[in-house]
Amino acid sequence: AETAIGIHDLSFRTTSLVLNHCELARSNGTDVAKYHKGLGQHAMSVPTADEDIVTMAAAAALPLVQRHGPDRIRTVVLATESSIDQSKAAGVYVHSLLGLPPHVRVVEVKQACYGATAALQFAGGLVHRDPDQQVLVIASDISRYDLDSPGEATQGAAAAAMLVSADPALLELTGPSGLFTADVMDFWRPNYRATALVNGKESVTAYLNAVEGSWRDYRARGGLPLEDFRAFCYHQPYTRLAFKAHRALLETCGARADDDVLQQAVAPTTGYNETVGNSYTASVYLALTAVLENCSDLDGRTLGLFSYGSGSVAEFIATQVRPGYRSHLRADAHREAVGARQPIDYETYRGLRLQNLPTDGSWYELPHQTRGPFRLAALRDHQRIYEAA
Ligand code: CAA
User: Fold this and answer.
1) Is 278 a pocket residue for ligand 1 (Cβ < 6 Å)?
2) DSSP β-ladder status, 171-181 and 313-321
3) Which residue of 203, 286, 315 sits with most ligand 1 atoms within 8 Å of its CB, as the best mutation to test the pocket?
4) For ligand 1, atom 24, which residue shows the shortest CA distance?
5) Is the CB of residue 1 below 6 angstroms from any atom belonging to ligand 1?
6) If phi over 0 gives left and psi between -120 and 50 gives alpha, with beta otherwise, what is residue 180?
7) How far is the CA of 239 from the centre of ligand 1 (A)?
């Protein structure tokens, strides 16, 4: 029989600060029900000045390296759309912070929020060629829209780290991929901008078209029928969209889309993203983490995963939960990462957003603010200096 390949371990971390949507609503005069019910968002993670995609990525991956050791990791693939350098892969800093051995290849991949799913597929191929090796896949992003724009309420930040291996403890990647690419300008970020540009309504339409398109391709390639899935993890730029996505999927299948069905399939996946906000590449993997931790009856069950990256590329895959998965989960550490964030008021959030790091290469030390294990300590000669905190 073919060796099972999939996710052996899964861990996520977020930032040290949190802005609650009640506070955002108070400051901009929005009815908070729009955020809670209309978008399904309650809070957003906000980075301190010394946190970025590298520090989050290393913090997310550290528990994996501690549990399994570094020796079998031969590849690190870091997916992000909020990269810190146009040339050097952020994963090289992570490799260094984690003390991984030199005999490792490290690359960065990008296709908006979809990148980590591509990384997962690359990892599966590498493990297929050499089943002794493990691949560290990391999704790390900080989402930023213009201040006072409609997207602002959907910001967030997190990193998810996955160890991909043969004979995985958590999830086996099974069956075909459903793929869907369409050249659309729904969301993008030119190199000279720190914040994304977005056509909000068009982005939702493009996303929902991709749900239908990738599902149809999945089925055409012999994928499982709707009834075989216990739950569906959708990319969650805001959690309400996952429910809309599932409704669209059910309609594509000609199935009943009543509230109970939607709740059963989607509600166990949204808990972390409701309070972390959009973590772009990491979002669908926070949904996956949530469902594994929320449901106690998943041994051998199938979960659907829909990954969407604006621009746009989408993929639908099925994963089968491995018997005994529960004893490998990290629910306490994840609840702690989310619960330990320090609440800030709107003025503090705005101050952090308006703070710009120097771009002239001058020496600049950052205040120690993070509560995480790694920090961006300084900038010097156009270089970023990271350290264990
Ligand atoms: N009580 C309850 N609900 C309310 C409400 C109230 N007082 N006021 C408004 N609502 C509801 C609205 O009826 C609406 O619901 P429906 O979607 O069911 O119609 C919902 O709240 C949102 O209201 P609006 O449409 O008026 O919201 P908006 O104009 O502020 O924009 C948005 C919403 C377009 C999603 C905006 O937040 C945005 O641009 N976000 C960034 C882009 C994004 O996340 N796109 C998702 C697809 S793209 C993608 O997936 C990639 C990615 O990660 C970015």
Assistant:
1) yes
2) antiparallel
3) 203
4) 38
5) no
6) beta
7) 10
Against a cut of 0.90, is the pTM above it? yes
Would the CB of 213 count as within 6 Å of ligand 1?
no
Judge if the upstream peptide bond of residue 312 is cis by omega within 30 degrees of 0. Answer: yes
- Strand pairing partners for 165? 6
Q: Angle, to 10 degrees, between the axis of helix 53-68 and the axis of helix 90-97?
A: 40
- For the chain, the C-alpha Rg in angstroms (whole number) is 20
Question: Would you say the ipTM is above 0.95?
Answer: yes
Alpha-helix residue ranges (DSSP H) falling in the chain: 21-28, 32-33, 53-68, 90-97, 115-129, 200-220, 240-252, 259-266, 271-276, 283-294, 331-339, 346-354
| Catalytic site includes residue 113 | yes
Please tell me the distance between residue 38's alpha carbon and the centre of ligand 1 in angstroms: 6
Which atom of ligand 1 is the closest one to the Cα of 204? 47
| DSSP state, residue 111 | B
Phi–psi pair at 285, nearest 5 degrees: -85, -20
Is the CB of 34 inside a 6 Å radius of any atom of ligand 1? yes
- Give catalytic status of residue 81 as yes or no: yes
**pLDDT tens per residue, the chain (389 residues)?**
679 999 999 999 999 999 999 999 999 999 999 999 999 999 999 999 999 999 999 999 999 999 999 999 999 999 999 999 999 999 999 999 999 999 999 999 999 999 999 999 999 999 999 999 999 999 999 999 999 999 999 999 999 999 999 999 999 999 999 999 999 999 999 999 989 999 999 999 999 999 999 999 999 999 999 999 999 999 999 999 999 999 999 999 999 999 999 999 999 999 999 999 999 999 999 999 999 999 999 999 999 999 999 999 999 999 999 999 999 999 999 999 999 999 999 999 999 999 989 999 999 999 999 999 999 999 999 999 999 99
**CA 109, CA 116: separation in Å to the nearest integer?**
8
Structure tokens at 177: 């991929």
Residue nearest to ligand 1 atom 34, measured at CA: 200
Per annotation, catalytic residue among 42, 51, 113, 293 = 113
Residue of 304, 332, 330, 307 whose CA lies nearest to 318: 304
Among residues 51, 81, 108, 152, the one annotated as catalytic is 81
